[in-house]
Amino acid sequence: MTETASTFVAGIDWSAIADGTALVLVLVGALLCLIASIGLVRWRDVPVRLHAATKPQVLGLILIAVAVALSLRSWQVAAFLLPVVLFQLATAPLSAHMIGRAAYRNGTYDRTTLYTDELERSRETPPAAGG
Question: CA-CA distance, 41 to 111, in Å (whole number)?
């Protein structure tokens, strides 16, 4: 069976659908990464910047990785991209947490925007007995 015959199943060109889906995923992923970078520049407070740096950026990377795997249609590419995505999912929240703690210790955040300061409250009240 030739390649052109295998891509046309029941009159549907699955190759063109996969390429179109990959194009949309790359565009949405790139837009999310752009939004993350704009958020880092525009927002003034560290916790808000961390939100912009981690959430849309990680989702954008995932969408772009899925698009690349879908476009190349290779299990080797998907197997290569899976650890990249997992590493990003593991390191982005950890680094954001460490940066947030450092900003809290240095006092480089806007205290007026905090609804509840759990770290300050934990210093004021001693831990319960037996816990």
Answer: 20
